[in-house]
Description:
The protein is mainly alpha-helical. It is 77% helix and 0% strand. It contains 13 helices and no strands. Helix 5 packs antiparallel against helix 6 (127-141) and helix 5 (87-122) packs across helix 8 (174-207). The radius of gyration is 24 Å and the shape is globular.
Amino acid sequence: MVGMIVRRFFQLILLLVGISFLVFTSMYIAPGDPATIIAGPTASQSDIEAIRKDLGLNDPFLVQYGRYINGVLHGDLGYSYQTKQPVWDAIMTRFPNTLKLAIASIIVAVIIGVVAGIISAIRQNSWFDVSSTVFALAGISIPNFWLGTVLILIFAVNLQLLPVGGLDQPFYTAEGLKQLVLPAITLGTGSAAMIARMSRSSMLEVIRADFIRTARAKGLRERTVIWVHALRNAMIPVITVIGLNFGFLLGGTIITEQVFAINGVGRLMVQAIAARDFPMVQGSVLLVATLFVLVNLIVDIIYTFIDPRISYD
């Protein structure tokens, strides 16, 4: 296990170097001059050139990238072109909202997806199974921005049961939980659909296995057979999907944060891209990529607790 974790951390470093190069290159060749945006429409050419020199934008590409990597290795993600604020501080100010939204969304997805998948497998070809299949197809197909807008119109505008947007209240308060409901459902619906289909397929495979037939032959109650023997063995592929979806949710909150006016990392990235704030974009992408790889590492570790037969030696 220790060896696997060490190997994964080395892979993480190589992956982040590759991601940083791709992101830096895409920002470098992207149209638009950060110095022109910072200087404003009334600035003279000499003012723009002075800003470019101050930011080091006139240096060759490899010099700029080397300077950036050197800063990252020393824990410095640079300073925002817009606010002059350290990139790390700006991201950490917004990250709690993104993390709360991702956790709430994956909780919604797991509760709906796992329960629906298990019941669909137990009652294969029933009306519930058919309804679950329709829900899964709809959940994967419906865009987040459309679903979020519809939920706002129904529950916030017409019924006035939940707030329109924002995420500025502590999550442990009643108002904070209300603010999380609509964006969590919006973001978690697609993940719930995928988890439901995987749970159903995995459970169908397990409940037809010989050891389940033996457990039933011993006279065990059906509830014990399903929730103790079958579920644990069916959870390996389901946990993989949950882990991948949680990683995607951490980096895929952009549209939902825009719809519900949530000041998270996703919305920060949109604003930074529009302003050609290269350090902010690069720092945000590196954070999301790091979290995604760490989530997958945690999933691999969880495997060994669910199924002791799994070994990484």
